[in-house]
Specification:
The protein is built from three helices and nine strands; from the N terminus they run E-H-E-H-E-E-E-H-E-E-E-E. The chain is α/β, with parallel strands linked by helices. The longest helix is centred in the first third of the chain and has 18 residues. Bound molecules: guanosine-5'-monophosphate and magnesium ion (MG) (2 copies). Its EC number is 2.4.2.8.
């Protein structure tokens, strides 16, 4: 698996330090009262597990399955909600977690839906944000790292279902992207 990585972009140590900072910011910024965390599967799983254990307050945790990439390396352009049931968020302050902000379609669509479902406020945190023009006008409130516009894997992010368990974020070798 590691043989297929061209370059490490964000290593474990950097991720740990950055998560400490973001967790503190979230802890101070969020008002008292119920907070529901929504984890976008599967990419945000690793980020969420490490981030949420650094936030010492009562949180409810829900997951959402959305798809925009369908396993490839390019966005398909629309966002599908794959769950039968949408979490109950009415009147709640929501912290929405995703692995990476790319075109912005996923965050924009999920944020819109959460507000339609009655969430009081939706704040978003992403591990990575690609420096590019977005298809949707959306920015995350908390960003782990800004990266260039290239396809990355690891720390939750996959290529065709693989590499999510790499402990760092890296760029795939061209020879591995088959
Ligand atoms: P957006 O809707 O912002 O275009 O894309 C968000 C989703 O696309 C992310 O949740 C992630 O699943 C996928 N994605 C975008 N860029 C990358 C990337 O560089 N690597 C991987 N593995 N997934 C990506
Ligand atoms: Mg995703
Ligand atoms: Mg994916």
């Amino acid at each position: 698996m590691q043989n297929n990585i061209e370059r490490v972009l964000v290593d474990e140590e950097l991720i740990r330090k950055r998560l400490d900072t973001i967790a503190k910011e979230i802890e101070t910024d969020f008002p008292q009262g119920p907070v529901i965390v929504i984890i976008l599967l599967k990419g945000a799983l690793v980020f969420a597990a490490d981030l949420l254990r650094r936030i010492p307050r009562e949180l409810s945790i829900e997951c959402l399955n959305v798809a925009s990439y369908h396993g490839g390396v390019e966005s398909s352009g629309n966002v599908d909600f794959l769950d039968l049931h949408f979490p109950e968020v009415e009147g709640a302050h929501v912290l929405l977690l995703d692995d990476i902000l790319d075109t912005g379609r996923t965050l924009a669509a999920v944020k819109k839906r959460l507000l339609e479902e009655g969430a009081t406020a939706v704040h978003t945190a992403v591990l990575l944000s690609k420096d590019k023009t977005r298809a949707e006008e959306v920015e995350a409130d908390y960003i782990g790292f800004e990266i260039g516009d290239e396809f990355v894997v690891g720390y939750g992010l996959d290529y065709k279902g693989k590499y999510r368990n790499l402990p760092y974020v890296g760029v795939l070798k061209l020879s591995a992207a088959v």
